[in-house]
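Re: Re: ligand-bound prediction request (bumping)

Still looking for help on this. To restate: I need the protein modeled with S-adenosylmethionine bound, output as structure tokens. Inputs repeated here so nobody has to scroll up.
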Amino acid sequence: MNEISHVPVMPKEALELLRLPQGGVAVDGTLGLGGHAFLMAQALGPHGHLIGIDRDSASLGLAQKKLASLILKIDLLKGSFSTLDKFLAGLKVSAVDGILLDLGISSFQLDDGQRGFAFSHDGPLDMRMDIEAQGMSAADLVNTLKQAELEKIISEYGEERFARRIAEAIVMQRSRAKITTTKGLADIILRALPKGYTRGRIHPATRAFQALRIAVNEELEALSLGLEVCFRALKKGGRLCVISFHSLEDRLVKNKFKSLGFEQEGVILTKRPLVASDEECKENPRARSAKMRGIEKA
Ligand SMILES: C[S@@+](CC[C@H](N)C(=O)[O-])C[C@H]1O[C@@H](n2cnc3c(N)ncnc32)[C@H](O)[C@@H]1O
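Reply:
Sorry for the wait, this slipped through. Here it is.
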């Protein structure tokens, strides 16, 4: 594995949007390695309370080390931000001042070949953020789903125009031998695509891999439910800030914010999504596709 790192995306913008009060309570619902959480903790000050949640226990362990020097109250919890209400009830916290959701996976998860998120590192085809949860892995999906279901996932979640060809190739290959590795799947995808298509800016397997990751972790379901649960957990004047990296996620956030705005007295803080500066995109290519939206409970 490469050096363990993850550079937080749009940190200044996130803090400005969250506008956390000194001594307040805030939630980082996608703690990762604690990059944003560290800055949120500094904004809350020594009398604040920071709650960090992640589905991935390895990330929680690393974030705990990163936050160890801080003296405010910190609770780190394993699970999904979509169950924030239960976590807060367990902590006897009735409402919070700010919540950050920085979606997707971290560079730390991507760079660990054993997690199976990336075609660039050969490893078992897993892709589960929560490896203790016994849910379906990416290998389970590609080896068992019907061809039409695979095509739908790759087309919808990956926005991949050659989804049919890829699904056909997967089904053909698995009839000979189970598909078990990231490299094995990447090779099948490469062979399925027309030659010219492989010369683009992104690796040709990127979209299909992303689609499988979203399906394995039921990311859109968690986001859809999570946005409502998080909004409900805010105090009056509390703010929710979401950073997404995929057009489907951004659309979901936009539409959910609109309905929360009308139905539950939310004030949308970003008429258009905020994006990272050119300077940040140069230094951190991951920031290029980031879109940030915020809403305040009125
Ligand atoms: C982009 S990283 C966050 C990085 C973090 N902001 C930082 O600065 O280090 C996203 C993290 O969210 C976690 N995650 C994704 N979906 C989640 C969910 N529904 N509930 C909890 N954690 C989730 C992933 O495991 C990953 O660690």
